[in-house]
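ok so I'm stuck.
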Amino acid sequence: MESYNKQIKEEYMKKYMLLLGTVLALGMGSCSEEWMSDVVPTDKLDAGDAFNTVKDGRNAVNGVFSLMQHEEYYGADIIAYGDLKGSDVRTSKIGKRKEGMYLYTETTEAGNPDLWIRPYKCLVSVNNAIDNIEKMEPEEEADIIKKLEIEANFYALRGLNHFDLLRIFSRIPAAVSGDIASQLGVVHADHVITKDETPMRKNLQESYQFVIDDLKKAIELMPVPSATNGFTPTDGWFTKSAVKALLARVYLYRGDNQLAYDLAKEVIADPTYSLVPYGDYKASWTAAYTNNEAILTLINTSEDNPSREGIGYLWSKDGYNAMVMTLSFKDILFANAADDRINAVEEDEETFLSLKYPDNFANKLYLIRLSEMYFIAAEAIYKVNAANAGEAASLINTIIEHRTDVADVLTAADINIDRIILEKRKEFVGEGHTFFDFIRNKKEIVRTGDDHLAGANNIAYDDYKTIQPIPRDELNVNDDIQQNPVYAD
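replied:
not stuck anymore, here's the structure
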């Protein structure tokens, strides 16, 4: 995302408020507000002011990314969710923030409603923009290609927002036995949903296809730099490879393993990106480091960040100190004293803290890293056929070499799903992947070690608690919404 100097930020706020109407006010309200109650329908926008130029479009894309920075979305909650519900991270004490995530104590009244509300708030913005995209008039030839980038980013964002909703509120298709069309997906925000609508959830097959179609459209629209077009991708936005990387992840979740492998390999082959070299792992998380491994980054600044509720403050010993690594995982990571990832861990009074968010407030959030593509490719090709274990080992060995400076650690005989997950846990602890990796592969969440807190039980991959209840706020305003099984309406 482009830097917010004062002039740009003032212009952005003026245009963004014209475009989104009361949506910004919604974003500043309490989590108990009805997410659809104050939506301004697209046909009520002031077409003369809201969306006329490419600059307006760029401001609107930046506005969606800014909404995603909120602590109730990527600023903290969705990352914390993917770690605390797994086996490698816990809350530091009973009563600390995010305890409910860790202990699976969510209910319809006291769950994680903002993980439903926030993506849909983003989708109001996205659909307003998509509905008005044709009003953007390129003022010069260079604006034509910029308009394509803007439109592609809106479709990519719509795919991402829906995929996040699916990860939290629906089953993962790869872990479903039988027809995924029999499972509930989410409400499709393919237009601006008004307060008069009571949309129902689509089925899981329809929802994943909706995400895939949006991401494919984004790939089709997205321009790429060339010697003739003078195009430079906007910092912090989706690129063509970033959309492919996200689609590879979606395919893996849906169980389309060959497609996931093929796309992950395409991204790996993109010379734009390279793995962080051995010795730089800790530094790669700092603001000053130019990280060529980062495929999609959500940028926080000193003026624009989630403050004390952000992921950095949750981990910091000088902040809430609410999240710590489990000792059982610490033993796994520290088993190799030469593993560079150890340097991104801090010991504090016999607890172990992630240093992936070194600033209490303004951290770069790596939504997609190149290393994930190696793990997606390895998992997917092994699932296509176990005879591909040698290739899976080679892919993971590339990561291990960059983290330990030792080549060819794994052989085909070492590879199974458990080993792939284990190696990925070392790489992505603190980034919100582990819970989903276990559930996608039909693995029980096992809380081993005596440092787990009372009430931290093992969770089967198909336990109803592995997906969230549709929140009470939504049930109160939408009589047609379907609740997830077992949760009370």
